[in-house]
Design brief:
2 helices, 99 residues, mainly alpha, single chain
């Protein structure tokens, strides 16, 4: 009887330690994501929405201005792709650790 109780206590302790380490992993990943996302948003997302604001005000853009905006968007997308992919990977790891 004592052996069974000890075994159950040991399994419960290991399970609790596993939950704590998963929680620590989630917290670490969240801290990493929260530290990296603001710089990404400022560099890669704000310029995108600032161009949209001009169009929402009804400002007419010439074909040349549209081509310039499209070229800037492609350059920004290429420059920001690796960071976007890394942040997406962190999000996937957070979701996996929470399950």
């Amino acid at each position: 009887m004592r052996t069974v109780a000890f075994s159950l206590l040991l399994l419960w302790t290991l399970g609790l330690a596993g939950c704590q380490s998963e929680a620590e992993k989630v917290n670490r990943l969240l801290a990493q994501y929260n530290a990296e996302y603001p710089a990404y948003a400022k560099e890669c997302l704000d310029p995108v929405t600032s161009g949209s604001a001009r169009m929402l005000t009804g400002e007419k853009l010439t074909a040349e201005q549209m081509a310039t905006l499209e070229a800037k968007k492609k350059e920004r997308d290429a420059r920001c792709k690796s960071e976007a992919d890394r942040l997406a990977q962190i999000q996937r790891e957070i979701l996996a650790a929470q399950q």
